[in-house]
Write a structure and sequence with these properties.
mainly alpha; single chain; 204 residues
Length: 204
């Protein structure tokens, strides 16, 4: 490696460390509110038309997997666009840092869901609680680049996931609101934290 390559490598490392410690501004509160609404709509649909949207446990799980994937796609598309506007030349480094943080948790959620649905569909009642715990752990792991108040949102998801696991195991089943309420309130809380953070930034 020549001096130029070495210098470029050091610059890339510095940018990566800076991105990891810089507050991420790519989250748009409005998109999180939309994701919350999507969760409520899904819960209402499953509650009012269970024969269509939740005829059995695997279908219940698939509906909520689709809701979370849709929410993730919506939030991600807006996050990429917003990050490029807000972070300028640091955008690529910020997005790479965010991807490194979220990818292990999304991969774990995907693998656990696939394995349970394929080899142990009778245990699919575990998934709503496990998903929420994973979201909570993701929030805790990303606190360095998020507003400090996000710790309460991460705690909310972790607590809800633990309670949902307990209730589902005790009752032997799940309800639409075991997913709908935690996701809706969680997404609204994320939006509220970022709105408050933006107001503080504008005032400061």
């Amino acid at each position: 490696m020549n001096d130029v390559d070495h210098a470029l490598s050091e610059i890339a490392d510095i940018r990566a460390r800076l991105a990891a410690s810089t507050r991420f501004l790519g989250i748009a509160p409005g998109v999180n509110a939309l994701a919350a609404l999507l969760s409520v709509v899904a819960a209402v649909m499953q509650s009012t038309c269970p024969e269509i949207f939740a005829p059995d446990l695997p279908h219940y799980v698939l509906v909520w997997a689709a809701v979370m994937i849709a929410s993730m796609v919506i939030v991600s598309i807006e996050a990429v666009s917003r990050t490029r506007r807000m972070h300028g030349q640091m955008a690529d480094a910020m997005l790479a840092s965010a991807l490194r943080q979220i990818l292990p948790f999304y991969t774990a959620g995907f693998v656990v869901t696939l394995v349970i649905l394929k080899f142990g569909s009778g245990s699919a009642w575990l998934l709503p609680g496990l998903w929420q715990i994973l979201i909570g752990l993701l929030g805790f792991s990303a606190l360095q680049s998020l507003p400090r108040a996000m710790i309460w949102v991460a705690g909310w998801y972790f607590l809800c996931g633990s309670v949902v696991l307990g209730l589902a195991g005790w009752n032997g089943g799940v309800s639409p609101w075991m997913m709908g309420l935690p996701l809706a309130f969680g997404q609204i809380a994320v939006a509220a934290v970022h709105i408050r953070n933006q107001e503080r930034g504008d005032n400061g």
